[in-house]
Amino acid sequence: MSRAASIRTGLEEGRKALEASGAQLRIAEEKLARLEDEIRELRASAAHEMEAERARWRRVTLEEAGRIAASARAQMEAAVRAARLELKRYGAGQAVAHAAALIQARLGDEGREQLVARFVSALGTEERRN
Q1: pLDDT surpassing 70 at residue 11
Q2: What is the C-alpha separation between 14 and 10, in angstroms, rounded?
Q3: Count of H-run helices and E-run strands, the chain
Q4: Residue 29 backbone dihedrals phi, psi, to 5 degrees
Q5: What is the distance in angstroms between the CA of the first residue and the CA of the last residue of the chain?
Q6: Average pLDDT, whole number, for the chain?
Q7: Cα distances (Å, whole numbers) of residue 100 to 68, 112, 113, 117, 121
Q8: Are 43 and 50 in contact (CB under 8 A)?
Q9: pLDDT-derived band of residue 129, with 50, 70 and 90 as boundaries?
């Protein structure tokens, strides 16, 4: 092969190699462009998912706080009811004790005997009516 033919062959091979590398470069650039698009999409998707998760946690937290507050209210209401009931019991007991003390102080033995006799007599009258 002559020197000119050898140079032409070398140039032709160089041109083909240049075309091949240009094609590979275009493929790589397309992949890179798609990769950048995918990265943007992934970032947008991740941001959207994070916001959705943040909203879900906010909702769950508010619901739990509501349940805790309702439970606390119910416990306080139950405690208030129990305290009122205990206060009524105590008041009734004190009233009975005070009434007994008053009766004890105002009635002597003779008065108590008369009171019991009247009560028994009233019971006998009720029995005869029935």
Answers
A1: yes
A2: 6
A3: 2, 0
A4: -65, -40
A5: 150
A6: 90
A7: 48, 12, 15, 18, 22
A8: no
A9: low
- Percent of the residues in the chain that have a pLDDT greater than 70, as a whole number: 95
- How large is the average pLDDT for residues 31-42? 91
Residue type, 67: R
* Helix (H) or strand (E) segment spanning residue 99: helix 3-106
Amino acid at 123: L
**Across the chain, which distance is largest between two alpha carbons, in Å?**
159
What amino acid occupies position 2?
S
Residue with tokens 């959705």: 52
Q: What is the pLDDT of residue 107?
A: 79
Hey, what amino acid is at 3? R
Give dist(CA 23, CA 30) in Å, integer: 11
**DSSP codes of every residue in 26-94:** HHHHHHHHHHHHHHHHHHHHHHHHHHHHHHHHHHHHHHHHHHHHHHHHHHHHHHHHHHHHHHHHHHHHH
HSE-up of 20 (CA within 13 Å, CB side)? Answer: 6
pTM reported for the whole predicted model: 0.48
Report how far Cα 108 is from the mean position of its chain's Cα atoms: 67
